[in-house]
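== Fold encoding ==
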Amino acid sequence: RTHNVPDFINPPDDKLKLNPAVARRYEVKWLWTEHFHNAFPGEAPAHMAEKVEHMPFLVLCNHCANPPCVRVCPTKATFQREDGIVMMDMHRCIGCRFCMAGCPFGARSFNWKDPRPYVKENYPGYPTREIGVVEKCTFCAERLAQGLQPACVEASRGAMVFGDLEDEKSDVREYLRKYFTIRRKAHLGTNPQVYYIV
């Protein structure tokens, strides 16, 4: 609800119902699951439990310190804030999809179909989505501005942690000290800022 995510599979009006296979093509994904080997190709440490390799992992935009999506965007619709969060201005996006090609994580969705009729309840605090633009996770920047956690972190009931990687006293830094973590495709040089406890 917070981000006016369209529901192409179960639309608010039955007249808008699509074939499920077609609906999945239009799906907007900011957070989705991947099996370990798809999410972390070539990253399985020898000491890792085999059961972890068969578990689904929640994946999202990695908010890379060196984001290729920012470099390739011709209109600066994709940009990086001072705090490192990679943002998307849907109103500046021209739909060229260079950012989608530049992202090695598949963390962007293109609105092939007008999403507005598929939004059950319009939340005025978030921009209206439009056809022909790209979107991605922004760590719920509008929630962060209000002192709230990203919606996914709040809904995860402790399974996800969000914080300032630069702050030695933050919860996220404590988790990094305490647990073994990996990052997605770190060898590509994008310096992903999302860590996974395995």
User: Anything to note?
Assistant: The domain at 20-146 is CATH 3.30.70.20 (Alpha-Beta Plaits). The CA atoms of residues 25 and 112 lie 9 Å apart.
